[in-house]
C-alpha cells in the first residue's frame, strides 16, 4: 500500500472509488491494518466532508483477520468511538474473533458475511509444493501457500497417476508440468501436466532419458530438463520440450555430470548450480545460452553444494543447502562471486522459491528426518523468520510460484485458523436460515412493491458475491 501511503492522487478519490478499491477481493495488500491507515489518511485530507463515510468504508476491512492489537487500535480511534454504526460493526467483529458469535443476531451475522469480514483476499501469487518423500515413500500431496494468511492447505487435485519424489516442476502458460522423479524403483521419464483452467491431469510426451534429481527451467518458450540420475549413473544430458509440438529434443550436454543441482533462468540464459557428479559435490555453475545452444562456465560458488536450491531475486542468485549453512550471492554480469553472507536453516533436499521480498526454504531433510518447517529470508532486512509449516513433513518436494491471477481463486485460499470446521458449519446453518428468511421477505416485498431488491447469496463463506453499499447508489452524493 505504498501508493495509498504516499500518493496525492489517492487523497482525491471519491468515496465510491475508494469503496470499490478497498472492497476488491484481489486488492494486493499483505495486512488489513494498512487499509485502515489508508482510510484514515483519506479521511484526514477532508475530515469535515468525509467523516460521515467512515461508517460505510469500515465495512471493507476484513476485521476478523486483524490481530488483537490492530482491532484495539481501530476500536479506540475517535473516528470509531464517535460513530454509533462503527462501534456496532467493530463490536460484531470482536464477537466473531473471540468466539462470542452466539451473541450476534442473525441479521448482523448475515451482514458481516455479506461484507466478507472474515474472508481472506485472493492473493496475487501462491506457492505450490508438489510431491516429495515422507515416511519412507513418495507422496502425491500438493499444498498451496497463501502468504497473506500465512497458511498451507492441501489442494484437492492430486495426480491420479500417482505420487513421485525427486522430480521437478515448472508452470508454463496455464499448465503445471511435473517431470521425472521416482517412487523407490526406476526413475521416471514420464511427464504429467495439470491444466490450471480445466483442473485436469494429462500425459505429455516422455523425456528421452529417465531422470530423478533433475533440474528444470523455462527459456525462450521451451522447457529444459537437465542432468539428474537415471538409476545407474549421473547425467550431463540436456533436452528441451516444445509445448506446441509435444516433443522433446536432445540438445548439447553440460560439461559436468550433475544430479541434485538447481536451474535458474536469467535473461535468456539458464544457470545450473552445484550438484553431485557421482563421486563429489560440485561448486561449479554452468550457463546455457539458449539461443546458441552453448554451455559455458559461470563463476563458481565458494563452497561445494549438492541437494541445492537456488533462486534469482533482485539481481542476485542465491543458493541454499544444509551441508554448508550459508547463503551464496552471485550478481549476474559480475565476473566474480560475492562472499558468503548470513546464516540459513539447517535443511537439505529442500525446496526454495522467491516471493519477493522473501525467499522461502520449504521442507527438506535435517540430517536425521524429513521436516515440515518453512524458513523465510527477508532480502531487505537480511533476517530469517519462520512461516507456517507444511501439513506433511517431506523432503525431495518441488515448489512453483503461481503468479497468474486468472487461475488463483477460492480453491487456493481457505478460512483462517480462528474458525474451526464445526464453528463454520454452525455459522453456515444460521446464514442459510437467514437467507431463506430474507428471500421470503424479498419475494413478499416484490409482490407488494415492485422496486429493486437485492438478495445476497452465501452458498459458501469464501465465495460470496460482491456487495454494493446501498448508500452508494448512482444518485447518491459521493464526493
Mind sketching the topology for me?
Layout: H1 2-6, H2 8-11, H3 15-22, H4 32-45, H5 47-50, H6 54-57, H7 68-75, H8 78-81, H9 84-97, H10 106-114, E1 126-130, E2 133-134, E3 137-138, E4 142-146, E5 151-154, E6 168-172, E7 175-179, E8 191-195, E9 200-204, E10 215-219, E11 222-229, E12 234-242, E13 247-251, E14 262-266, E15 269-273, E16 285-289, E17 294-298, E18 309-313, E19 316-320, E20 326-331, E21 341-343, E22 351-355, E23 358-365, E24 370-378, E25 383-387, E26 398-402, H11 421-448
Antiparallel strand pairs: 1-4, 1-26, 2-3, 4-5, 6-7, 7-8, 8-9, 10-11, 11-12, 12-13, 14-15, 15-16, 16-17, 18-19, 19-20, 20-21, 22-23, 23-24, 24-25
What does this structure look like?
The protein is of the alpha+beta class. The protein has two domains: 2-119 and 417-472, Serine Threonine Protein Phosphatase 5, Tetratricopeptide repeat (Alpha Horseshoe), CATH 1.25.40; 126-412, Kelch-type beta propeller (Neuraminidase, 6 Propeller), CATH 2.120.10. The chain is built from eleven helices and 26 strands. The strands form seven sheets. It has a four-stranded antiparallel sheet, with no helix packed on it. A four-stranded antiparallel sheet has the order 6-7-8-9, with no helix packed on it. A hairpin with a 4-residue loop joins strand 23 and strand 24. Helix 10 crosses helix 11. The longest helix has 28 residues, at 421-448. It is elongated. The protein starts with a helix and ends in a 31-residue tail after the last helix. The relative contact order is 0.11.
Amino acid at each position: 500500500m505504498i501508493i495509498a501511503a504516499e500518493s496525492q492522487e489517492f487523497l482525491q478519490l471519491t468515496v465510491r472509488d475508494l469503496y470499490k478499491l478497498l472492497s476488491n477481493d484481489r486488492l494486493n495488500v499483505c495486512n488489513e491494518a494498512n487499509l485502515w491507515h489508508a482510510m484514515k489518511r483519506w479521511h484526514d485530507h477532508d475530515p469535515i466532508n468525509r467523516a460521515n463515510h467512515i461508517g460505510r468504508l469500515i465495512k471493507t476491512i476484513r476485521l476478523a483477520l486483524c490481530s488483537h492489537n490492530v482491532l484495539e487500535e481501530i476500536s479506540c480511534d475517535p473516528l470509531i468511538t464517535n460513530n454509533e454504526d462503527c462501534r456496532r460493526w467493530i463490536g460484531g467483529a470482536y464477537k466473531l474473533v473471540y468466539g462470542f458469535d452466539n451473541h450476534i443476531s442473525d441479521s448482523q451475522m448475515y451482514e458481516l458475511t455479506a461484507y466478507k469480514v472474515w474472508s481472506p483476499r485472493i492473493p496475487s501469487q501462491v506457492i505450490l509444493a508438489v510431491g516429495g518423500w515422507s515416511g519412507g515413500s513418495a507422496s502425491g500431496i500438493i499444498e498451496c501457500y497463501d502468504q497473506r494468511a500465512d497458511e498451507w492447505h492441501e489442494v484437492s487435485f492430486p495426480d491420479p497417476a500417482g505420487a513421485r519424489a525427486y522430480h521437478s516442476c515448472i508452470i508454463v502458460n496455464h499448465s503445471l508440468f511435473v517431470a521425472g522423479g521416482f517412487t523407490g524403483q526406476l526413475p521416471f521419464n514420464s511427464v504429467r501436466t495439470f491444466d490450471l483452467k480445466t483442473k485436469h491431469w494429462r500425459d505429455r510426451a516422455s523425456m528421452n532419458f529417465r531422470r530423478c534429481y533433475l533440474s528444470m527451467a523455462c527459456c525462450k518458450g521451451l522447457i529444459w530438463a537437465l542432468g539428474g540420475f537415471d538409476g545407474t549413473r549421473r547425467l550431463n544430458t540436456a533436452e528441451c520440450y516444445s509445448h506446441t509440438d509435444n516433443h522433446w529434443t536432445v540438445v548439447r550436454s553440460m560439461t559436468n555430470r550433475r544430479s541434485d543441482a538447481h536451474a535458474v533462468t536469467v535473461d535468456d540464459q539458464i544457470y545450473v548450480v552445484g550438484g553431485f557428479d557421482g563421486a563429489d559435490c560440485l561448486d561449479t555453475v554452468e550457463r546455457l545460452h539458449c539461443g546458441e545452444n552453448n554451455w559455458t562456465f559461470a563463476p563458481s560458488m565458494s563452497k561445494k553444494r549438492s541437494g541445492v536450491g537456488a533462486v534469482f531475486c533482485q539481481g542476485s542468485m542465491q543458493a541454499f543447502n544444509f551441508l554448508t549453512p550459508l547463503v551464496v550471492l552471485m550478481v549476474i554480469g559480475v565476473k566474480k562471486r560475492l562472499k558468503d553472507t548470513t546464516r540459513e536453516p539447517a535443511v537439505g533436499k529442500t525446496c526454495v522459491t522467491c516471493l519477493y521480498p522473501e525467499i522461502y526454504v520449504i521442507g527438506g531433510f535435517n540430517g536425521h528426518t524429513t521436516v515440515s518447517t518453512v524458513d523465510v529470508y527477508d532480502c531487505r532486512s537480511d533476517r530469517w523468520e519462520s512461516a507456517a509449516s507444511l501439513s506433511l513433513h517431506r523432503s525431495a518436494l518441488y515448489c512453483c510460484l503461481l503468479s497468474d491471477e486468472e487461475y488463483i481463486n477460492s480453491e487456493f485460499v481457505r478460512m483462517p485458523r480462528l474458525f474451526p470446521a464445526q464453528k463454520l458449519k454452525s455459522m453456515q446453518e444460521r446464514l442459510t436460515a437467514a437467507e431463506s428468511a430474507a428471500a421470503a421477505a424479498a419475494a413478499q416485498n416484490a409482490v407488494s412493491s415492485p422496486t429493486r431488491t437485492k438478495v445476497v447469496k452465501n452458498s459458501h463463506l469464501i465465495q460470496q458475491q460482491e456487495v454494493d453499499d446501498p448508500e452508494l447508489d448512482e444518485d447518491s452524493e459521493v464526493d
